[in-house]
Each structure stands twice: as structure tokens, then as C-alpha cells.
Design a protein that fits this description.
mainly alpha, Multidrug-efflux Transporter Regulator, Chain: A, Domain 2, about 65% helix, HTH merR-type domain-containing protein, DNA-bd_dom_put_sf
Length: about 100
């Protein structure tokens, strides 16, 4: 089992409740639910069925909120963010291949 310090450093550890995540992002819980339905984020479910969000998921949701606030519809924002993340991952993979 991970040490508590490891969990605090883990970008994917689901440490935030839906209410806290919405507060951090400055959005409604409904906005977070819609991002889940759009498949941008898939929150962890606690034993009681409550949604829990990681820092990584909060960053994605914040990017989506910013884009929506500037007039981009949610479906387009989700697609753009997914493509940006795929490009970033491909670039990281390419750089690690070149290093070897």
C-alpha cells in the first residue's frame, strides 16, 4: 500500500470530492457530471458511490471550463483537450525514443 506522502504526490490519486473539485474549478457539480458523460474524465467512485477527482482530472476539467467560458461548446472542448493530451503523450514518447 502507498504511503500517505506518496498519495499526496500522486497526480492520479482521487483526493477531491465533487463539491471540492467544483469549488476549485469554479464550476457547478453538474458541469463535472457532464464532463464525465462526455468521457473527458472518469471519476473514481468511493465505497458509497460518491465521485472522487484527482488533480489531473481537475486540471482537465479546468481546461474545459476555460474553453467553454470563451464560447467553445463542450463537445468541441472535450475533443480538443483529448487531442492535445494525445499529442503531448506522443511527443514525450518520441523524445524518450530519441534519447535511447
Amino acid at each position: 500500500m502507498a504511503q500517505s506522502d506518496d498519495m499526496l504526490d500522486d497526480e492520479d490519486y482521487p483526493a477531491y470530492t465533487m463539491g471540492r473539485a467544483a469549488e476549485i474549478i469554479g464550476c457547478s457539480p453538474e458541469f463535472l457530471r457532464r464532463l464525465g458523460e462526455a468521457k473527458l474524465i472518469d471519476p473514481h467512485r468511493s465505497g458509497g458511490g460518491h465521485r472522487r477527482y484527482s488533480r489531473y482530472q481537475i486540471r482537465l476539467a479546468a481546461r474545459a471550463r476555460e474553453m467553454c467560458d470563451h464560447g467553445t461548446d463542450m463537445a468541441s472542448a472535450v475533443r480538443i483537450i483529448i487531442l492535445e493530451d494525445q499529442l503531448e503523450e506522443a511527443l514525450r514518447h518520441n523524445q524518450s525514443d530519441q534519447a535511447h
